[in-house]
Design brief:
alpha/beta, five-stranded parallel β-sheet, 35% helix
Amino acid sequence: MTDKGKILVVEDNDFVRMQMVKFLNDGGFTTCESRDGWEALSTLSTDTSAAVIDMRMQPMDGLEFIQRLHGFNKKIPVIVVTGYDTKGLEREPALWNASAILTKPVPRDELIAAVERALE
């Protein structure tokens, strides 16, 4: 299977993060994982193709991370995942350019399809 791109997965829940990483690896992607926004910023690289980001994390939430990510490179597509109600998220300016907003638990095929669409 060919490498489809390097995906940064930022999720504070270890189980959920490991599951998303496995899904993406099985789908042909290379992954880099972080448990919070600060750690993700320190591992961010120029070959990052897209980012899958949890909205509710400490000490930096997903919105702040997206703003900082776009300060680094506005072209990196963002897929947002959340376990909370998504109503009103579309009003957040940082999310206007999000490729997708997915609700946890995210099925394998839905996550892979969202990342593939983001990279088109």
